[in-house]
Design a protein that fits this description.
With about 450 residues, this protein is mainly alpha-helical. The chain is about 55% helix and about 5% strand. Helix 7 (about 170-190) runs antiparallel to helix 8, helix 9 (about 225-240) packs across helix 10 and helix 9 (about 225-240) crosses helix 12. The protein is globular, with a radius of gyration of 29 Å. The structure holds protoporphyrin IX containing FE (HEM).
Length: about 450
């Protein structure tokens, strides 16, 4: 009886369990596969809602793919893709990198309007996982990649006083010395024009030596110095981690969980190697200051200025700024100038003729103190800065206040890219005939 009752009362449960076991036995692989798949699908769906809600209301822009947004569209040449989207979405639109909405400004007129009217609101920089959490952990960030803070104000002030016009005027001697050594190296390695030569290491030495002179008051006088190869290699690698497009894990947090994340491991290694040469350069300067043999330089000025009150980390941040600010930028601009001149003998001839109008054969290197007398050279240098846009997407900014543009409200905390590449290529601002490189000019 008890059994029967038990049987009756248990029957449905037992049947269900048995059925379930049979069912499970047959469909186990499908369920095992199906559960994560359903989870993933649910994640993608929920994420799509989050992604849609994150968009800036009132701004058009390409929607992109689930999870990754527009990362696929910009994998080859982000700045050019942004420029092409102008015809569809206008000069100012939004994209999404992963879930993160980014406002992209693509014309000089829009840049002037937005940055001109919102200087304070756009005075900060966004933080990215790879650069800010992995590369910059110990050695700090550069000025151009630091979020707004009192510390950033202090660092900007120190950098601005070292880089303003009167200060730069006092660097003319260094610029002259390094330029002469650059020409000497071209002449020596190229055997006076007889041997084809790769000018890149010479250009890199020139810009590295200038940065090191300005910041630590010491030179990198030859490519043979061990610091030359180490700093140029490490800084080049680090600039890739700073890239706004090259680090997928910045936008897709799931990728950070990868236990064999070689990207982060490499970033950490570069950080360690950078700490080594920064320490060596700082130690060298401290020894020269103690011995009374230091030359005037940014670090010595700040160290000896009682009122500046910058912490060790802030000093490091300024050093990194001077190193990375001057390396990539000056090197690539000069490299493109050399390549252009090699391909355009007509520009070389015109430049020599224009210079000769001011300086005779007896002054082949002109006067270092004069940089504005020869109008053609001034135009050539300015046009070079446009010809190859070094930082195509400038340095990203983040809004610290709401911004209104054409009726659209860009909320506080929005990342903003300035597409300098598109601005420099704007046919309205720079018609083809206006270029100094045009055959008729
Ligand atoms: C051809 C040479 C150069 C180019 C094209 C260039 C370009 C730029 C650009 C586009 C920015 C970002 C502007 C922004 O969005 O706020 C920037 C920032 C900066 N650059 Fe340069 N730069 C050059 C050379 C240098 C040199 C030689 C130094 C220092 C020795 C330097 C120091 C800085 C600093 C300190 C900032 C950060 C400013 C801030 O956040 O307050 N730059 N540069």
């Amino acid at each position: 009886m008890t059994r029967k009752v038990r049987h009756v009362s248990m029957a449905p449960t037992t049947l269900l369990t048995d059925d379930l076991l049979v069912l499970l036995a047959g469909k186990l692989p499908v369920i095992l596969l199906g559960a994560p798949l359903a989870g993933l699908l649910a994640y993608i769906l929920i994420n799509e809602v989050v992604r849609a809600k994150a968009r800036v209301v009132g701004l058009h822009g390409p929607r992109g793919l689930p999870l990754i947004g527009n990362l696929w569209d910009i994998r080859v040449n982000a700045a050019e893709q942004y420029r092409q989207w102008v015809s569809k979405f206008g000069a100012v639109y939004q994209i999404q990198l992963g879930n993160i909405p980014v406002v992209v400004i693509n014309s000089s007129a829009a840049a002037k309007a937005i940055f001109g009217q919102n200087t304070q609101a756009l005075s900060s920089r966004p933080e990215f996982y790879t650069f800010h959490k992995v590369v910059s952990n110990t050695a700090g960030t550069t000025i151009g990649t630091s979020p707004y803070s009192d510390s950033l104000k202090r660092r900007r002030k120190a950098a601005a006083s070292a880089l303003n016009r009167p200060s730069v005027q006092t660097y003319v001697g260094f610029l002259d010395l390094e330029s002469r050594d650059f020409i000497k190296e071209l002449y020596t390695y190229g055997h006076g024009g007889q041997t084809p030569v790769d000018p890149m290491p010479m250009i890199q030495r020139l810009s590295l030596s200038l940065s090191v002179t300005l910041n630590w008051g010491t030179r990198i006088s030859s490519q043979q110095e061990s610091l030359f190869a180490e700093i140029t290699h490490v800084e080049e690698e680090i600039s890739k981690f700073r890239s706004t497009t090259g680090n997928l894990q910045d936008y897709i947090p799931l990728l950070r969980l990868n236990p064999i994340n070689t990207h982060s491991a490499k970033a950490r290694d570069m950080r360690r190697r950078r700490d080594v040469y920064l320490t060596a350069l700082n130690k060298g300067l401290e020894e020269r200051i103690a011995a009374g043999t230091s030359s005037p330089c940014i670090q010595a000025n700040v160290l000896l200025d009682e009122e500046a009150k910058l912490s060790k980390d802030e000093l490091t941040s300024i050093s990194l700024t001077m190193l990375s600010g001057g390396l990539d930028t000056v090197t690539t601009t000069l490299a493109w100038l050399v390549a252009l001149l090699a391909n355009r003998p007509d520009i070389q001839e015109k430049a020599v003729a224009e210079i000769r109008a001011h300086y005779g054969e007896d002054q082949p290197l002109c006067d270092a103190e004069d940089d504005q007398k020869c109008a053609y050279m001034v135009a050539l240098v300015r046009e070079m800065l446009r010809y190859f846009t070094v930082l195509r997407l400038a340095l990203p900014r983040v809004s610290v206040k709401e911004i209104v543009y054409n009726g659209a409200v860009i909320p506080k905390g929005t990342v903003v890219f300035l597409n300098s590449w598109a601005c420099n290529m704007g046919a309205f601002t720079f018609p083809a005939t206006s270029s100094i490189f045009s055959q008729n000019n």
